[in-house]
């Protein structure tokens, strides 16, 4: 399987930028091939063709480096889509766009592979993996923010936007994340994705709108 490239700035001209990208690319390859436990900063440095000191200058720990990779993968999949609630726009198209954004992220094989590594590390060493899990959870706050804004505008009705957001994302992850993570099922087809997005929006709006 080809190695996914780390998200890149438009013009990585500085040497420090090029080294950072090389480190991220090398880390992605090492984590996917070795898993979290067996991956070392020494190995990442060798693969990136930089010194270990350079790796630590950019990333203080292996945990922070791994969390940064997952965060950037999330940002790369979502960069074209705004999460801001628009009071003047119809509610359902906004909700479906949020769900499609989530679906696009979960349908990336590189994200699934690295998420599997993260979950395995969480089971193996929950305290050590807590930072990376917390940083991933922060990236899901956008849906909660959107629901909170729609509730304040009177379009949704909930006393607990965070709970509603967890329910909404759970409907997507039940089909487009956990089967792939736990049972190695293939990514969903476009038709399957459309069905899940549409039915999830139906259920959510029926209850909360």
From TrEMBL:
Classification via Gene3D superfamilies: Homeodomain-like, Tetracycline Repressor, domain 2
UniProt superkingdom: Bacteria
InterPro entries in the cross-refs: DNA-bd_HTH_TetR-type_CS, Homeodomain-like_sf, HTH-type_TetR-like_transc_reg, HTH_TetR, Tet_transcr_reg_TetR-rel_C_sf, TetR_C_Proteobacteria
Keyword DNA-binding: yes
Keyword DNA-binding among UniProt keywords: yes
Domain HTH tetR-type: 17-77
DNA-binding region(s), chain positions: 40-59
Keywords annotated in UniProt: DNA-binding
Protein name according to UniProt: TetR/AcrR family transcriptional regulator
Organism: Gilvimarinus japonicus
